[in-house]
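re: that chain from earlier
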Amino acid sequence: LRSIPSLSQFRRLRYLWINNNKIQDLTFLIKNYYLTELYLNNNELTDISGALKHLCSLQILFLHNNELKKLGKTVKELKGMISLQTLSLFQNPLAYDPDYRLYVIYFLPSVQLLDRKLVTQRERESALHLFNPKRAWVMQSIAFGKRVDTSLGTTVGSSRCTQPARRLIMPSVLKWFGNVQAMDLLCSFCRVPFEDPEDAVLVRATTRSLMEFSSVDWNKVATCQERRLKNKAEEPPERLTVQFR
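^ sequence. v structure.
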């Protein structure tokens, strides 16, 4: 088939297989809002702009082995499909873009299976770092206080009255390893046999960032009027800084 007449009379059509044809135009789907599965693979599609964005209920979409060339334009057409979970775009010219997979993962967050391969959390994080580094930095840094990037047991310079970070005691299971790198390798496994549950708690604590909180006694800080009336130089307010994991 090279073309298909309008399917507008089938308003409640949900599943449609038209793969393995020579279709180049998709305007015949303009009224099929209820579609949940659409198989268009192995055709001659070069552009899907304006043809699929109204299919908000679509969950499965196969578009592999076509002639789609513009990655940004294609993904923009699919952005409104908030229910889309399975998508295939491989064997299209756009799939040769070096950032193709991460681009699709970032701009189509609902997709869980892309090109017959499950989308992993690591891929989602990589996509966020690549296409929105500012938000990635905020997500890594935001907390109740301020994040300080330091390794375990190091001393961080700060203002007066600062408490040093509490050094955690290594659990017994980590005595098998001689350095922090080995400990990180151990912590990366999901299931580690701990004899004592407190060991697991301490291992998790060692992977946390060092947090820093600062406070000032505002009762000892002069107001604008008091500063104008005083002739002597004002000392900077004393700040209390506490660090912990």
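The helical segments are 71-78, 100-107, 121-131, 133-141, 180-187, 197-206, 224-229.
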